[in-house]
Design goal:
Two copies of one chain form a homodimer. Chain A has two domains: 8-65 and 375-426, Roll (Urease, subunit C, domain 1), CATH 2.30.40.10; 66-370, TIM Barrel, CATH 3.20.20.140. Helix content of chain A is 36%, strand content 22%. The first copy, chain A, contains 13 helices and 17 strands. In chain A, strands 3-2-1-4-15-16-17 form a seven-stranded mixed β-sheet. In chain A, strands 5-6-7-9 form a four-stranded parallel β-sheet. In chain A, a hairpin with a 5-residue loop joins strand 1 (8-17) and strand 2 (23-34). Chain A starts with 7 loop residues before the first strand and ends with a strand. Chains A and B meet through helix 2, helix 9, helix 11 and helix 13 of A and helix 2, helix 9, helix 11 and helix 13 of B.
């Protein structure tokens, strides 16, 4: 076997999602990475891998790197502020002014450096990232993320209506700038950073803009990310703006921004009705479940358990800065919290998310948007975290690996990540 | 003015609760402590205090120390485990076996040392603490807390029914052991650690035990802590066990464990009806709002905003280990989260908690159980935290002190506490 830099073996207490509901846990096992791809997990190391360099994590937890399916890089500086508002006033009062400041490349550099540094040091291996409407600042962000070690989709945001003048684009400008941005990205030759079309959401994108973006999606064969059915006032607004769609999702579908051959991520889907859920399912759309965001903006809670039961694609997202934390560990906790209150206070027919289910959406669920990612099963892109859970003191002994994983997610933090690998490359 | 060790001045960006809804914030101010008590906040230092030693926090945030109104010390080792259960099965499967292990003083020492060390390093200045049924281990915990710098009430737990044999006491044993424990505490001469009577909750305390404890409360003039109306199955169980009470709270009231002259803390009060809320109000009972616990065990969410509007005493609590985190910063966040989902999903007539309101219950609200604590107003016991919020990077500049405080609570952690004072004594 050819020995390469990204071919190696890790040894430790291994945990990953076998399925939506099942956590696979090994007290002492070997995870094998060959050319950036997992060969699987072995309790005894097969002879054929014994020549590979081995890192013994000394019994520490080894789990897959996580996927943040929805995060706004230019809102990172706003985290933890003005959390007493709902979606539309919050956007108008704080988010649009902040994003507009990325016209200044000096500010963009300062702010995106902080973002990229923190993403690098977190549990996130892969992410779908919103930038701003500015093509230069978006390119700058992509350059920084290319250096961060993460695998990302990054989108220049499009919007031509219901946005303050200081930040709005005309339909034509928006499409032209997007094409220029796509051409510039092609010239950059990024290896880890890919473009994704990013109509902000229907309230801020005219039908013409959506159709133009749909054509670009086809021409450049691009995935799409946007927002969907987050807040009840937003949904009413969409009905008013687009009275002829069958549901909010249809405003994307009819423009070619969602479809069986058009990978897309829709953030939130808190209030999707049956028509919409079916449309998402039929078109293989990914739901970026953003629990902390949906709590902070009083949006509600998506019925994740039901979406999973229906075989839909669900991933987890931090949605900074409607979510205050870019921590995927916190996002897992928040997904469980939100599902429990949804169950107790709103709909006792939809059970809360169990720990294995929340862990699944954070890893394998969202990872699927990037191909095979978020698991250690054979053939998966090798993303891994080594976690020092023993640094969280307890008097108890003899915890199982599953118990240790649950405990780490509740009590751990990014400071306890001792190593991070993305596609077999060691990030730190 | 006599200069003492616990007379000094702090300078920095000062924030505290003026009232339930109002945050007082000073960009650059002096907080004066004389003999452990606040003299107030001054934008210019009065001449009379200029001889006191001054610590300049270099613009860091200075906020009051916090009160954790309800935490179970012997459950600290269980944090972050088995969070997929509701109250009664969780108690029987995990909590009772864990607590029973404190019969072993060696285990108790190991576990309580971790607890006391982490309480010392956190934002909590004052706490109401449940121990176990064991008098020796409870004394040991009190000795450790006496050394921790915190001001605490600590209770030996009482329970004589519906508890597994390996952990139950007889009524007589329970009362005798409590008296012995109280006598032993008196002989210890603690300065910071006071006893509090602690019937676990009505399901595990017979009427005879409650009445015996009520007599002890009167004889030793003791406060009381217990649980109330946390979970719907628990409430049904109480109705079955005590069919002649007017509400769950009445089971404490009729035994003299609550009353106008009997300070008491009741954890949860998630499902208190009008009768019960009125009884709590009339008797000046403190509600220990435990949002993370109430989420984790799918209990529900207490209508804190309504309780505050009705002029009831509400403090905040972590309720480890039904709450996974002993962090009061996390508890403030969780109080806001829970209130927002309660508002959106259950009762749109009760508004969510604002940041100032959640901050209030964490400081001045719960602090009132200890007298005047949790504020920098003149005459308050001087509990303070110095917080290094500048270590949380952001590209934004010119944030107000209120904005910095909100941001710190959402993004900060115990590691960023640079100094902690309790009653004017520097803890670290």
């Amino acid at each position: 076997m050819k020995k390469e830099d990204n071919s190696f073996v890790l040894r430790g207490a291994v945990v990953y999602s076998g399925s939506e509901t099942e956590l696979m846990a090994y007290e002492d096992a070997f995870v094998v990475c060959v050319n950036g791809v997992s060969e699987g997990v072995f309790t005894e190391l097969p002879e054929v891998y014994k020549a590979l360099p081995l890192t013994d994590a000394g019994g520490m937890l080894i789990m897959p790197g996580m996927t943040d399916l929805h995060i706004h890089a230019p809102q990172y500086a706003l985290r933890g502020s003005y959390m007493d508002l709902e979606l539309l006033p919050w956007l108008n009062s704080y988010v649009f002014p902040e994003e507009a400041s990325y016209a200044d490349l000096g500010y963009a550099k300062k702010a995106y450096e902080i973002f990229a540094t923190e993403m690098r040091s977190g549990a996130t291996a892969r992410a779908c990232v919103f930038a701003t409407a500015h093509q230069e600042a978006t390119l700058l962000l992509m350059e920084m993320l290319e250096e961060s070690g993460l695998m990302t989709f990054v989108g220049k945001v499009n919007m031509d209506r219901n946005v303050p003048d200081y930040y709005a684009e005309s339909t034509e400008q928006s499409l032209l700038a997007t094409r220029e941005w796509l051409e510039a990205v092609q010239n950059k030759g990024f290896k880890k950073t890919r473009p994704i079309l990013t109509p902000r959401f229907t309230p801020s994108c005219s039908r013409e803009l959506m159709q133009g973006l749909g054509k670009l999606a086809a021409e450049y064969d691009l995935p799409v990310q946007s927002h969907l059915s987050e807040n009840l006032s937003e949904i009413d607004f969409v009905k008013e703006l687009e009275p002829d769609v069958s549901c909010y999702a249809d405003s994307y579908l009819r423009a070619g921004l969602m479809g069986k051959d058009r990978p897309c991520v829709m953030a939130h889907c808190v209030w999707s009705d049956e028509t919409e859920a079916e449309m998402l399912k039929d078109n293989g759309a990914f739901i970026a479940h953003s629990p902390e965001s949906n709590i902070n903006l009083c949006s509600g809670v998506a019925p994740v358990k039901r979406y999973l039961a229906e075989g839909m694609h669900v991933g987890l997202a931090t949605d900074v800065s409607a979510g205050t934390s870019a921590s995927m560990f916190a996002a897992i906790r928040n997904a469980i919290y939100a599902s429990k209150l949804r169950f107790r206070l709103y709909d006792e027919n939809t059970a809360p998310l169990s720990f294995p289910e929340a862990f699944y959406i954070a890893t394998k669920g969202g990872g699927a948007f990037f191909g095979k990612a978020g698991s250690f099963e054979k053939g998966y892109l090798f993303d891994a975290l080594i976690l020092d859970d023993a640094s969280i003191p307890t008097a108890r002994t003899g915890l199982s690996v599953s118990e240790r994983a649950e405990r780490f997610i509740y009590l751990g933090s990014e400071q306890l990540i001792r190593a991070k690998y993305v596609s077999g490359e060691r990030v730190f």
